[in-house]
Amino acid sequence: MAKYLLLKHYRGDHDIAAEDVAPMDQWTPEEVKAHIDFMLELTEDFKRRGEFVDAQALSPEGTFVRYDGEGKPPVTDGPFAETKDLIAGWWVIDVESEERAHEAAAFASSAPGPGGRPIREWIEVRPFMSEPPTITE
Amino acid sequence: MNELLKDLTPQVLGILVRRGADFAAAEDAVQEALVEAVRHWPDQMPDEPRAWLVKVATRKLIDAQRAESARRRRELKVQLEPPPGPTEHSDDTLLLLSRCCHPDLTPASAVALTLRAVGGLTTAQIAQAFLVPEATMAQRISRAKRTVAGGSFDTPGDVQAVLRVLYLVFNEGFTGEVDLAEEAIRLTRQLAAATDDPEVAGLLALMLLHHARRAARRTSSGEVVPLAQQDRSLWDTAMVTEGVEVLQGALARDRLGEYQAQAAIAALHDDAATAEETDWTQVLEWYDELLALSDSPVVALNRAVAVGEADGPLAGLRALDGVDPDLPRWDAVAAYLHEKAGECAEAARLYAVAAAKATNAAERDHLTRQAARLNASASSGSA
């Protein structure tokens, strides 16, 4: 088994979605509900399969913080009105193979948008570091 | 008491399923009986703990069947008491293990079910060992039980599948409240006592010969120490001796297999008082045997290291030429051989590549230190 982080971005190096999708506040309430229900159901599916480790959503507002030397208060920057990349949230799953992690991410990316069409947003998949094996020779 | 309960768990489960109980229901009943034992035994230890557990587990099984029947609101017609059957079979362990390691299960499910049903660990302990929530592990185990439920339960399955699962339990290297390496050794011992397959003994020997080095494998701060740099005075010589004896017994049967060959390689390393005294020629011969048995690219990669030690780094690099460079640790092996060949700049570059590709943090840190060491000596040499 291996753990993977499935990251949902607000924006990233890739555009939010392959399709030309309007911002969510311009969807109908039913479309918004269908999208969120899909995400919750996906989490339940991970639980049913015995793959679930964690799921969190992040507030879009954040601050960058940096050490500025002994005795000085930390430097802060942001929040930013426009940013290239914000992490919206994640799942952590413990799955049998990388193929299964990719399948799960692709399914997450098929979440419905306007008109019930899959929005096809990019989901970033990052493997966790594991423990070293005992037998290496 | 915990050790006793762990030993009795598979025996009691074996007795119930022998008598015809459904595997999943019997497993639940045994778990409930264990809870009762933990509650009552400290006050009064039964004269015959196993008989006590069988009795309580049988009662739990009946209770569960009654509850199920009541739920369905129909008369209880099923036979409550499983018919008395043979109480002990030496191959119960293999029977149970082969059910838990059924080929229809994914490796992770088989590992979880084995640790719970045969190892007698709690779901919480297994969850903690694999760093997942308890509910996730509970779900994984119950899905696994559903997968293997039903079917006849009197023919032992594939020993090879069982050995693969036990190898995984040993090799995953997770450390939590429960030491999974020790669990794997305990279960493999039980299996070795119940079967005369030399590969079972081979796997037990392999585990013992590696486990003997445990104290030397990490520094106190958790850094990985490669075999060549380990403090061999920390090795458990009694465990090495046992491992070698088990291996010799297996090899004498003249039915060589992968686990015996791997154990032979481990034994040669364990036998060397210093890394320099390692009999690399013999190690290489065993890698040739192993490669003939398994044709595994990982074996071919490790064989290249042995070639490098036995016949020199250039020969090692030539052996490495034929190995798929996409393999994990390929760059680390190439770096090692280049350094031995005196090509320190190339070695440093390859160590850095290997570090970036490492799939675990301990190995990544080790490889980064190797790259840094070579880069630092290169810049101090040129200064």
UniProtKB/TrEMBL annotation, chain A:
Record-linked Gene3D superfamilies: Dimeric alpha+beta barrel (3.30.70.1060)
InterPro entries: Dimeric_a/b-barrel, YCII
Domain of life assignment: Bacteria
Natural source organism: Nocardioides panacisoli
Annotated ranges, domain YCII-related: 4-106
Record family assignment: Belongs to the YciI family.
PANTHER family: BLL7171 PROTEIN, BLL7171 PROTEIN-RELATED
Protein name: YciI family protein
From TrEMBL, chain B:
Keyword terms of this UniProt record: Sigma factor, Transcription, Transcription regulation
Residue stretches making up the DUF6596 domain: 160-250
Any Pfam family hit: Sigma70_r4_2
Domain of life (superkingdom): Bacteria
Signal peptide positions (record): none
InterPro entries with a match to the protein in the record: DUF6596, RNA_pol_sigma-70_dom, RNA_pol_sigma70_r2, RNA_pol_sigma70_r4_t2, RNA_pol_sigma_r2, RNA_pol_sigma_r3/r4-like, WH-like_DNA-bd_sf
Residue ranges of every copy of the RNA polymerase sigma factor 70 region 4 type domain listed in the record: 100-147
Similarity field: Belongs to the sigma-70 factor family. ECF subfamily.
NCBIfam families to which the protein is assigned, alphabetical: sigma70-ECF
Protein known as: RNA polymerase sigma factor
Taxonomic source organism: Nocardioides panacisoli
